[in-house]
Amino acid sequence: MSLVFPHTFVPWFRAVAPYIHAYRGETFVVGMTGEMIAAGKLNSFVQDLAIMHAMGIKIVLVHGFRPQVNEQLALKGHQPQYSHGMRITDGIALDSAQEAAGQLRFEIEAAFSQGLPNTPMANSTVRVVSGNFLTARPVGIVDGVDFKHSGIVRRVDAAAIQRAIDIGAIVLMSPFGFSPTGDAFNLMMEDVATETAIALQADKLLFMTEVEGVRENPDDPESAIDTELALADAKRLIAKLPPPTQPTDVGFYLKYCVKACESGVERSHILPFVVDGAILQEVYTHDGIGTMVVDEKLESLREATHDDIGSLIALIEPFERDGTLVKRERSEIERDIESYTVIEHDGVIFGCAALHPYQEARTAEMAALTVSSAVQGQGDGERILKRIEQRAKAMGLTSIFVLTTRTMHWFIKRGFQPVDPNWLPEERKRKYNWDRRSQVLVKKLS
User: Fold this and answer.
1) What is the rounded distance in angstroms from the CA atom of residue 289 to the CA atom of residue 377?
2) How far apart are CA 255 and CA 245, in angstroms?
3) Which of the two ends of the chain, N or C, has the fewest CB atoms closer than 10 A to its terminal CB?
């Protein structure tokens, strides 16, 4: 263990670091289903939230209580009633909801107070603030169905919530609201979380749910989870689906994610609570674990700017140290920054390559092709290569070439052919390191 641990922990922690920097000071609204609490996942989940809070993320937690209310109703000999995917809240159901909300708030606040030794909560100081941050209005009568004490959010007191999270507290909200006249209304956790995220213009809205996410083929339960769903695609999918009535229906959480993204929340997520540490995996890894809805794809190819110099140096340095790349002076990278193409995901650069043209020979060198070890094997290298080829064609060039000592087979599989170093343009040949004996590979551009 002592020999293996540093070799796994150190690269992993370095891979996580860009996300720690990126999300420090951002606001996340987290919706937690009552089913998650009933499944015994509360304590481990609270520990994960405490870790995120310690790394500078501002958190608003909204809990649900569907199974807990149903349990209270059963004790009273009363059957739960639903319509249009919402609870019909009569007087007995309202009493049950109030009892369930009070008990759950107590349990959640207690969980945040368990600073036990040898746990992620050790030595932590997490303050939880609860309050009446909502006003609500009745659902009313829909298609002849009277929803009685069921309500929807009328207004969120965003200023009060902001003050609480700005002083370092985690805000805890129950799905309960009151009208200006003092009437109490039972709300849906999903509605409260979504409206709160919109009111705060949160950076993320995350739902911890009974489902794994949205599948690439919703009709095939064995198909893979779509980890990144563009807002336009999510809207098209919802339009094809029947109105959701159960939390396990594809569109149930998805419609709230779409509403949030349409209203200014940058990203919305559907995560499975059955996976231990799901929220940490979603926030601090490249591909995540559930489904993320975004207004546009987060991964993009673009030309580098001077703001990217530090990121490029950090990306290239490990490969220079192990000899995969020739060491470049930092002034050289800064001078040639406009020749670089980068691939980034969620604001973090994971790959790059430079294109140095030799116009007289109608060719160009592709140099410093690099993909972070954290995301290798996912096609980023090929995407960068394709963009470099497009740039070379736009310059009127007929070929590109690379010099490599270790990755010859990768390039040959992608259409490059080995040539003698004497093939190089005269200007490049004068800089060729005959001691390094790099292989020269050329690809003709159609």
Assistant:
1) 18
2) 12
3) N
Q: Tokens 């170093």 belong to which residue?
A: 421
Helix (H) or strand (E) holding 394: helix 380-394
120 contacts 50 by C-beta, under 8 angstroms: yes
Q: Rounded distance, CA 54 to CA 47, Å? A: 10
Residue 295 CB burial class (10 angstroms; 0-12, 13-18, ≥19): middle
Give residue-wise pLDDT tens across range 228-260. 888 888 999 999 999 998 999 999 999 999 999
pLDDT one-digit tens code per residue, 361-406? 999 999 999 999 877 777 789 889 988 998 999 899 999 999 998 8
Residue with tokens 């799901």: 278
What is the DSSP track for 314-356? HHHHHHHHTTSS----HHHHHHTGGGEEEEEETTEEEEEEEEE
Residue 293 and residue 66: Cα distance in Å, rounded? Answer: 25
| CA distance linking residue 213 with residue 216, whole number of Å | 10
CA distance 93 to 100: 10
Tally of CB atoms within 10 A around 374:
16
* Neighbour tally for 308: CB within 10 Å: 19
User: Tokens 């149930």 map to which residue?
Assistant: 252
Reported as type and span, the H/E element at residue 368 is strand 363-371
